[in-house]
Design brief:
Layout lengths: L1 E3 L13 H5 L2 H16 L5 H7 L4 H29 L1 H20 L4 H29 L3 H14 L1 H17 L2 H21 L6 E3 L5 H12 L2 H31 L4 H54 L5 H27 L6 H26 L5 H21 L8
Antiparallel strand pairs: 1-2
């Protein structure tokens, strides 16, 4: 059962009003930018965090993998919360948790305290991102949502580009804690903007979204959709492919290829530029060829990109430039396919858009958590763990995309 929202000053004038919605694109992009900034801003600091706390690389990497675990699990609740109580309350609560957790990370006295703070930071972060995705589906379903998602992705790609650059500077100038101070300030600024500018887009609140029986039933219905998995699995593999590099390349660049810390941020920023290029290709390809062919293009590109670095390593060309080039192409492929996967996985479930976005996000991030944990656990001071993981994901991406393609609903 759903209940229409009473009209108020925070409601959109009409669902699908693209002109009104365009004013929110930058805000939604900022909300979604929280997640890559929460990971990329402190990536240049990972080896230094391990040194500061006397931890192993695997211990420092837990600050990343536990963040992803929290991000994956908690959004299963935050999505239905936004379906029941509305997008605005859920989003503002997410910002409050994110800000408090970021402050706790900045003040962490031990590696365990930092890991705990990162988990709580993920609780707020995942709520912010899930609500932003649901707002897009509320206002622009179908291919319109895919186009808006690609546009938002083009803007929020500034996060992965600028985040590592700023993170490298902060590490050199102030140390690793500065990254979390910046995230605290960013959370305050975006939270205030959302409070004053975000309209309530959930016009049909699901009164039973949090009822235990309905809660499980809604997720079972979504999980039973072949269309959902046909979009979600390629998206999860695509995200996992970039997480192979996010979780391991900082250690390779600094400890193996001896790239100065001040330049590591620039390396991540250059590779993130590939993601921005991918979102531009996605938008143009969507206009000309539609969702199915754009998803196929993204999967093919991901397959080729994932095999590049291991091929170069086997060929004796293990070098920081080879790592950077391969990472850039992996990010480009992700930018082509992932916006389509996000939009189309949620589209068939308008009454449970928050839950659908949450389940997709949980699958995507949980897979990335597993990938990041394996890469961290197998790190041996050589490029081979990253190369093997990348090759495996590339092969799975191609097989999964081809095998599930027939189950995708074609969206006009």
């Amino acid at each position: 059962m759903t209940q229409p929202c009473a009209a108020d000053t925070h409601s959109l004038p009409a669902t699908g009003d693209a002109q009104h919605f365009s004013g929110l694109v930058w805000l939604l992009a900022g909300c979604m930018m929280i997640q890559p900034l929460s990971t990329d801003l402190y990536l240049p600091s990972l080896p230094h965090i391990a040194t500061a706390f006397g931890s192993s690389p695997a211990g420092a990497q837990k600050t990343l993998s536990l963040f992803m675990l929290g991000f994956a699990s908690v959004q299963l609740l935050s999505g239905p919360l936004s379906d029941r109580w509305g997008r605005r309350p859920a989003l503002l609560a997410g910002f409050l948790v994110f800000i408090l957790a970021s402050v706790a990370c900045a003040l962490a006295p031990t590696i365990d305290a930092l890991i705990t703070g990162r988990f709580m930071q993920a609780v707020g972060c995942c709520t912010i991102v899930v609500v932003a995705r649901a707002v897009i589906n509320d206002t622009q379903p179908g291919i319109g949502g895919a186009l808006i998602m690609a546009r938002v992705s083009s803007i929020y790609a500034l996060g992965p580009i600028c985040g590592p650059l700023l993170g490298g500077y902060l590490q050199v100038a102030f140390g690793w804690r500065a990254a979390f101070v910046v995230l605290s300030l960013l959370g305050i600024a975006l939270g205030a903007l959302a409070f004053f500018r975000l309209p309530e887009t959930n016009r049909s609140r699901n009164l039973h979204a949090l009822n235990p029986g309905r809660f499980v039933g809604n997720y079972a219905k979504i999980a039973g959709s072949a269309h959902f998995w046909a979009c979600t699995l390629p998206g999860a593999l695509s995200f996992g492919s970039i997480f192979v590099y996010l979780s391991g390349s900082a250690f390779l660049l600094i400890n193996v290829f001896f790239v100065p810390t001040a330049y590591v941020g620039a390396c991540f920023a250059l590779s993130a530029g590939g993601y921005w290029c991918g979102t531009v290709i996605c938008r143009r390809h969507l206009h000309r060829h539609g969702i199915d062919r754009t998803l196929r293009l993204g999967a093919n590109a991901s397959f080729a990109a994932c095999l590049l670095f291991p091929a170069l390593v086997v060929g004796g060309l293990a070098h920081w430039a080879a790592l950077l080039f391969a990472q850039c192409l992996v990010m480009l492929a992700h930018g082509i396919g992932f916006p389509c996967a996000q939009a189309t996985a949620v589209a068939p479930f308008p009454a449970n858009a928050g839950a659908a976005a949450a389940l997709m996000g949980a699958v995507v991030i949980l897979f990335s958590f597993v990938v990041g944990t394996l890469v961290g656990a197998t790190y041996d001071g050589t490029p081979y763990p990253i190369g093997i993981a990348s090759a495996a994901i590339g092969l799975l991406t191609l097989a999964c995309s081809r095998g599930l393609e027939r189950f995708r609903i074609r969206t006009a």
